[in-house]
Design goal:
The protein is mainly alpha-helical and 197 residues long. Helix content is 67%, strand content 3%. The chain contains eight helices and two strands, in the order E-E-H-H-H-H-H-H-H-H. The chain has helices spanning 27-41, 56-75, 78-96, 104-124, 128-141, 147-159, 163-177, 182-196; strands at 11-13, 18-20. The protein has a two-stranded antiparallel ribbon. The N and C termini lie far apart (58 Å).
Length: 197
């Protein structure tokens, strides 16, 4: 890629609201740009139309996967926990597979909840590294009001014997969430007790 900047001779006609150039090879691109500009100017308040609504069927399917995973996880048997992990994984794939025009906030919210739930399922199986990775992904997607994911990664780190990391992680979680989440405060005390041993 050439790092130089080339100033092109462009002119704007206010009456026709079009951009033109004496360079012929730019005309097709400038014609498309001018047409888009004129189309946007015909809308009320000169703003583009709102995005298409989200697909309610996809949202329902993502919620269904999460709910079924929760039911399987509550059963507590190794087979049902494996089923819960699979259901959460399907839900994550559905949430992350949303079309690009759908709101990113919705994708982040759905995926964050599913990653946090899958982290709990991994923890129930004693799969601490997988649980830590999923909880961290959940926090990366949604830092605030996600105390469960902060707690889950801290607990996984603690169970893996990574006390310093766990302490730093929980401290950051408390700074982010405030001192309200009692489970994070309790985990911090547990980490400090284990450090003293």
């Amino acid at each position: 890629m050439d790092p130089t900047f080339t100033l092109l001779p462009l002119t704007f006609d206010p009456s026709s609201k079009s951009v033109s150039s004496p360079l012929g090879h730019l005309e097709p691109h400038l014609a498309a740009l001018s047409a888009t500009s004129r189309a946007l100017l015909t809308h009320p308040n000169q703003i583009p139309p709102p995005p298409l609504p989200t697909n309610p069927k996809r949202s329902a399917q993502v919620s269904k996967m999460r709910d079924q995973g929760n039911v399987s996880l509550r059963k507590g048997t190794p087979a049902s926990i494996a089923e819960a992990i699979q259901l959460y994984t399907y839900g994550i794939e559905m949430a992350l597979g949303r079309p690009g025009w759908e709101p990113v906030g919705l994708v982040r919210e759905e995926a964050s909840n599913l990653f946090s739930n899958r982290a709990q399922a991994h923890m129930s199986s004693g799969l601490w590294p997988e649980g830590a990775a999923d909880a961290m992904t959940s926090v990366e997607l949604k830092r605030l009001k996600n105390a469960k994911a902060w707690w889950r990664r801290g607990k996984c780190l603690l169970e893996m014997g990574r006390w310093r990391e766990a302490k730093e992680w929980v401290r950051e979680g408390l700074e982010t969430e405030g001192n309200e989440p009692n489970e994070l405060m309790g985990l911090m005390k547990e980490i400090e007790l284990r450090e003293k041993r």
